[in-house]
Write a structure and sequence with these properties.
The complex is a heterodimer of chains A (about 220) and B (about 250). Chain A is mostly helical. Chain A has a single domain, classed as Orthogonal Bundle (MetI-like fold), CATH 1.10.3720.10. In chain A, about 75% of the residues lie in helices and about 0% in strands. In chain A, helix 1 runs antiparallel to helix 2, helix 1 crosses helix 4 and helix 1 packs antiparallel against helix 6. The longest helix of chain A is centred in the first third of the chain and has 35 residues. By secondary structure, chain B is of the alpha/beta class. Helix content of chain B is about 40%, strand content about 25%. Chain B is built from 9 helices and 10 strands. In chain B, the strands form 2 sheets. Chain B has a 6-stranded mixed sheet with strand order 6-7-8-3-9-10, sandwiched between helices. In chain B, strands 2-1-4-5 form a 4-stranded antiparallel sheet, covered by helices on one side. In chain B, strand 1 and strand 2 form a beta hairpin. In chain B, helix 3 runs parallel beside helix 5 and helix 5 packs parallel to helix 6. The chains are: A mainly alpha (about 220), B alpha/beta (about 250). At the A-B interface, helix 5 and helix 6 of A face helix 2, strand 6 and helix 3 of B.
């Protein structure tokens, strides 16, 4: 039994370190998701404007972010900005910047789609009833937009959480990196540790993302028109 | 019938260079039912939309209870509370049940107490035969039921005048009647109404006065009897002939 790789997890403060790494992952995800949602709503509303200048700028932004692999964006911000502008972001900061840029673009497009799919007649019928602009947004448009938005937004959140595993490549010591360190340290004594540690990490991602997925599926079903 | 509730003076409306309404003047007295007829594209729907400022106007004035309402941008929502409007496409709020659709604006825009509004809404729904549908969502209703609910929604605001914009145009033929009956009932109660419709028999039955429009102008105005039996203009005769052929 001494061979069982899982025991590595309970050597010294390994388990606490792994949880610490998980917390970094969750912290980066939470901050990124929070800002992405806020900026995404603002971007989505801006994308609704008929102004050709804002239309072109937002379009370029969206396409740029979508075409670039997240890893390239991470390298650009972490290494590129240091080399060319002398900005010395920490790995965590660079990660948050990239994820907020990416999440905002995706969220903005979702918000634009949701608002755009609401018929103009809904606004007119609110106006004809004598509701104010704010009341129309609050009681008529936002509830309908949110309803259409939440399943996709939840999907985006899980994608963002999973993609944080890339930031190990710009030196952020998050859950995957700590797992790798533990595997390295135990390489000679417990060769089977890799499978166990990665298995635990898989499970950790699962318990974060699964509730979000379930919630998304639930809301999608509940709000199906 | 009493004083003019709604007055329209020299109303002009353009979409770009296209003049949709050229010089429209008429008034509607309290309790009067005015039906606006005319070929497609003559501007009759635009006229209704101008009255409650869903469209901007390029000239002229609109009065409600002798008070000028056109150009009053600041209190637009207050003015619209006094003008009920029912659209061709019903436009109920899909995320609210029927009762909530009806009570939302009286509660939020007019700040009336919830219990009072709900009581009135239920009475009105009962009168249009929708008492058992108050908890249903719009998607669960037929077109005719949706349109009756939309009428109740406008009615519950206690508007001084009701505007109907081709409210039966997108209904299945067998549902047209149930909506027209509700409107006929309202007319008998003495409500002030301006109706745009293509239902000639209904127009004949409900109207106190017919306004006939073509190409952005009022061509003819008169009692239904005069208009349908002895149209004064060639254009009106042509228009009515088309319907006779169809009938």
């Amino acid at each position: 039994m001494q061979d069982l790789g899982i025991s590595v997890l309970f050597q010294g403060d390994n388990f606490i370190r792994l949880m610490g790494g998980l917390w970094i992952t969750i912290r980066i995800s939470l901050i990124s998701v929070l800002f992405s949602m806020i900026f995404g709503v603002i971007l989505g509303i801006i994308m609704m404007w008929k102004n050709p200048v804002t239309k072109v700028i937002t379009k370029i932004y969206l396409e740029f972010i979508r075409i670039m692999p997240q890893l390239v964006l991470l390298f650009l911000v972490y290494f590129g900005s240091a080399k060319h502008f002398g900005w010395d972001f920490s790995g965590e900061m660079a990660s948050i910047i990239v994820f907020v840029f990416w999440g905002t673009a995706e969220m903005g497009d979702l918000v634009r789609g949701a608002l755009g799919s609401i018929s103009i007649h809904q606004i007119e019928s609110g106006k004809a009833l004598g509701l104010t602009g704010g009341q129309i947004y609050w009681y008529v448009l936002i509830p309908q937009a949110v309803k259409r938005l939440i399943p996709q937004a939840m999907n985006l959140v899980t994608r963002m959480i999973k993609t944080t595993s890339l930031i190990v490549l710009i030196g952020v010591v998050e859950v995957v990196k700590i797992g790798q360190q533990m595997i390295e340290a135990a390489r000679l004594t417990q060769p089977s540790a890799a499978l166990w540690i990665y298995g635990v990490i898989f499970f950790l991602y699962f318990i974060i993302c699964y509730p979000v997925s379930v919630l998304a599926a639930h809301l999608e079903k509940k709000w199906k028109d | 019938m009493g004083n003019p509730v709604l007055g329209i003076k020299n109303l002009k409306k353009k979409f770009g260079d296209h003049e949709v309404l050229k010089d429209i003047s008429f008034s509607v007295k309290k309790g009067e039912v005015v039906v606006v007829l005319g070929p497609s594209g003559c501007g009759k729907s635009t006229l209704l939309r101008c009255i409650n400022a869903l469209e901007s106007i390029q000239g002229g004035e609109i009065f409600l209870d002798r008070e000028k309402i056109s150009g009053n941008v600041k209190n637009l929502h207050k003015i619209r509370q006094k003008i009920g409007m029912v659209f061709q496409s019903y436009d109920l709020f899909p995320h609210m049940n029927v009762l909530r659709n009806v009570t939302l604006a009286p509660e939020k825009a007019q700040h009336r107490p919830k219990e009072e509004v709900e009581k009135e809404a239920e009475e009105l729904l009962h009168r249009v035969g929708l008492a058992d549908k108050k908890d249903a969502y719009p998607r669960q209703l037929s077109g005719g039921q949706k349109q009756r609910a939309a009428i109740v929604r406008a009615l519950c605001m206690h508007p001084e005048v009701m505007l109907f914009d081709e409210v039966t145009a997108s209904l299945d033929p067998e549902m047209v009647r149930e909506v027209l009956d509700v409107m006929l009932e309202m007319a008998k109660e003495g409500r002030t109404m301006v109706i745009v419709t293509h239902e000639m028999q209904f127009a004949k039955a409900v109207a106190d006065r017919i306004i006939f429009m073509d190409q952005g102008n009022i061509i003819e105005e008169g009692s239904p009897k005069e208009f349908f039996e002895h149209p004064k203009t060639e254009r009106a005769r042509q228009f009515l002939n088309v319907f006779e052929f169809e009938a």
